[in-house]
Amino acid sequence: MVSKTNQLPDKKLLNVVFALITLGWLMVLSASIHQGYGYAIKQALFIFIGLFAGFLVLKNPISLFKKYSTHLFLLTLIFLVLVFMPGLGHEAGGSTRWIKLPLFNFQPSEMLKLTMIFFLSAFLIRQEEDIRKPWVGVGKTVIIFSIPALLLMLETDFGATVILAAITFGLVFSAGIYLKELIGLILILGSAGLLFISLNPVRSKRFFDFWATDLWSNNSDKVDQTKQALIGIARGEWSGTGIGAGIQKYVKLPEAHTDMIFAVIGEELGIFGMLGVLALYAFIIVKGFEISKVALQKGRKFSSYLANGICIWFSVQISVNVAMNIGLIPIKGWTLPLISYGGSSLIFAIIAIAILVRIDMENRASYEKQKHFV
User: Is the pTM of this model over 0.90?
Assistant: First the structure.
């Protein structure tokens, strides 16, 4: 095993990532300035930790993640159990999703998004023949998915469960599973998700209130959050009010520095700013799928699956966050990768990007070194 390549990281990709991280820090500062500098200082610390971890990733071959994929996945499951331990787990908003640490509350579900991709990528290679057998591949995939999904549902983290499902079934589809079986499974899981929503009075009220009535005549708190986001975006018009000049963040818009930061971008940077952010994300995702394609062409299936899974994760999470900020779907606690405030989400998003960069470096490595990569 070697850790070095004769290639440097893609400068364009790094510049786009640094642009999003920098913009994210500025918007967190702006969105939370009325509460002091605490959030901005912590976000700077999270960025430093994420970049340091990303640097370590770039120094190690992707084969290392394949070797320890099962260990990392099992470690994450242990963390998911630890959130329920009294004195160690942290509860907020009726959910128990965090482990209390000195500097911030660690959220294992953010780590799970990445370690699940590691584990599934290695699993798909080991089970390459079975995964294409009718219902055999689906059955094994359901078993793998159901264990962490059950723990997430016990935390009442429905959003992370949806992302996990998208990653899981997106990867098995790319590995060649039968489309008919996959569609059937998605329908079953979708029905189970609707049942889960309907059985919880708070969640069902939030969901059905959003769709059942006119948005502007509904006075529920969660729908009001959507209205305030749209008012801010409308106020920003095309060019925005300027960074720091938004007013919705002060009282009207809850979670302005986390879930609703895209609405703050809309108010302060305008529609042009929102489109610019989406263009930067599109560059990363398109580049990521290209990296996956090249890795597959070179016979490095683990790297290909890994890049594919990361792109699926980012695509789903970005799409849902943007959709809820512009009033297309009900509000759900999903951060905007690389931009929203949050330790666990930011750190693991940066690590995921570093993995994409490392795969790209190995794709461009000299022919003699290809045999060392996976």
Answer: no
